[in-house]
Design goal:
With about 200 residues, this protein is α+β, with helices and mostly antiparallel strands. It contains 5 helices and 4 strands; from the N terminus they run ααβααβββα.
Length: about 200
């Protein structure tokens, strides 16, 4: 081997060693970069999973709250419907009372509503026809210290109950007016009886 061949061989050998060292360094750097990238990807994936879990919990909580609100609203709606049905049934029962019971109720209602002066009591056509003959006398015997009531001979266009007329002033004592006035009280009393 000549001197030139030896130099070339040595250069080739050194180049191969240097290439091998460079390749090994590049492989190490690639491994390190790959490990760093994997760690970063794992951390990012874990953060995304955590964020997704938190969002899922939030959505489940919101859905549960919404469902509870809807359930509560539906429950209250059903309760109100039941209470309203009971009140409607009570109203209908009063309308369908026998004459004696019905006029006893009107008597009590009249005694509570008579003011200190004379008035006319107006009934509807049906009630005027079935009014007991002593109805006016019974009322006046009870309220003689407070006022005087005269049952009008002509009917008034009302559904039921009566209207007291004091000159220009009227006191509406129809069952609908009484029920409407007492609606909140009726509901307050019925709720604990119907729902515990």
């Amino acid at each position: 081997m000549t001197g030139l061949d030896k130099i070339l061989s040595k250069i080739e050998q050194e180049s191969a060693q240097q290439a091998e060292a460079t390749l090994a360094a590049a492989n190490q750097k690639a491994q390190r970069l790959l490990a760093e990238a994997q760690t970063a990807a794992d951390e990012k994936a874990a953060a995304l999973v955590e964020k997704a879990q938190q969002e899922a919990k939030r959505k489940v909580g919101a859905a549960r709250a919404s469902a509870e609100t809807i359930t509560r609203t539906n429950y209250l709606s059903v309760r109100n419907a039941v209470v309203n049905d009971v009140i409607a049934a009570a109203y209908e029962a009063i309308e369908n009372m026998d004459d004696q019971a019905y006029f006893d109720l009107l008597f009590s209602l009249c005694v509570k509503n008579v003011e200190k002066s004379e008035c006319k009591l107006y009934l509807n056509k049906r009630d005027l026809a079935r009014c007991p003959a002593d109805f006016e006398d019974r009322i006046n015997q009870t309220v003689y210290e407070t006022g005087a009531v005269q049952v009008a001979k002509e009917p008034k266009d009302i559904e039921n109950g009566f209207v007291l007329v004091y000159g220009d002033m009227e006191v509406n004592c129809t069952l609908r007016a009484v029920f409407d006035e007492k609606m909140d009280t009726l509901k307050d009393r019925l709720n604990p009886l119907l729902f515990e």
